[in-house]
Amino acid sequence: MTRQSFSALALFRRGLAGHLDWQKQWRKPTPKASYDAIIVGGGGHGLGAAYYLAKEHGLTNIAVLEKGWIGGGNTGRNTTIIRSNYLFNESAALYDHSVKLWENLSQALNYNVMFSPRGVMMLAHTVHDIQVFKRHVHANRCNGVDNEWLEPEQAKEFCPLLNIEDNIRYPVLGAALQRRGGTARHDAVAWGYARAADVLGVDIIENCEVTGIKRDAGGAIEAVETTRGLIRSKKVGVSAAGNTSVVLALAGVRLPLESYPLQALVSEPIKPIFPCVVMSNTIHAYISQSDKGELVIGAGTDAYTSYTQRGALHVNTHTLDAVCELFPNFRRMRMMRNWGGIVDVTPDRSPIIAKTPVPGLYVNCGWGTGGFKATPGSAHVFAWTIARDEPHPINAPFTIERFRDGYLIDEAAAAAVAH
Amino acid sequence: MLLIVCPYCGKRPELEFTYGGQAHLARPAKPVELDDQTWTDFLYMRTNTKGPYAERWRHARGCGRFFNAVRDTTTDHFLGTYKTGEPQPEFAAATTRTIPEHPK
What we know:
Chain A is α/β, with parallel strands linked by helices. Chain A contains 12 helices and 19 strands. In chain A, the strands form 4 sheets. Chain A has an 8-stranded mixed beta sheet. The longest helix of chain A has 16 residues. Chain B has 1 helix and 6 strands, in the order βββαβββ.
């Protein structure tokens, strides 16, 4: 299978021809009767896992089953923040593995994912914030992850719009800056992985919802029932984000997950004005500017579990209150769109990338409010886990059994993100 | 924002409430006698139901009391609420339309 290579030259030449001869980026295959492996969930994590299975483990007779359209779930609904300044060793290893893959992802996929390491600055507003962030800075350095402490004046230098006056409700007392962090184009990540996986022979099957999981006499995975018929496979990897509990329940597996709506919104597009990513966990503001010019703003989760992909307006206005106080320039800006995604949250706010009690069934879930940043790394180690039937050393701690055995990776407070 | 019917105070906006997660999880009387898996199930495992879900709410900025509700998590439509300690009543199925018709 060959695909047109994307390059500036190709763009120029096809531009002369009126852009009429671009190929479809991936096929629309009908499902085969059986595959060597099936990935349930066509978001970035699932498509990436299929790509790495084909690319690095030689499993090319595989399919990705997506109930809607690829990248239409949380991959297309997040605020695209990428960082790896997590506190614990296990998390730092996982997220930094991901950041390293981000750095060369456009080249690896021949697809411009617009990774932009413009720096992620996390604001401290209380004495507790200062202590926690400084602890993060030191822990990160021990793990080889860049992170530095900025005084308020330095923070303002890095992000000139920032209000560091002390007459606001939560004055900025400092910030932790990860310069290697940044953003990427979320859709391009799904499309890039889909196209690269398709070239390697992976069938990407959209509008195909898994409705049942069949197990053989020994309990092992035998097939999945879908809205497009029965598909046999001895290996099934589930990467279904907020719907993971539902899919795994089909195989009788219970998980320590709860699904919450998480909302985001964008403003009207304006000229480039915001040079970095600013996060304020204490007062719930996550903000960056897209290449299109919109301010991309993340809000907190709603209070209750839900599968509706929408949430309440007061959650957004709470975030806008904080944004307006930190960036008074934005007070008259109009917001253009808001939406919600369903995120699967674990009790310790760390993901699960592991084998399940059912032989042949693997799960990659629990990314909660911060899964986008981990897309390449998570997909990479998940593919390893599926191919070898054992975890990669990086995801070995992220089991389901850690909740039973007491080895929580407790980023609930440590990630410094208010959940 | 949801409108929630507190069984003690009546219909109030969501802002007055805090969420308490899955309802009817009884704390085992003698945790020390449980094996690790059973204790884990109580502490961490949730059904995370897609559909009608029995859950706890607390009218924190009202009467302060906990109560239970059944809400369809695919629509956020409340099927009904009831007092803590009462068994889960049979509620009529949720209507799928939760957004009222626009006034003509």
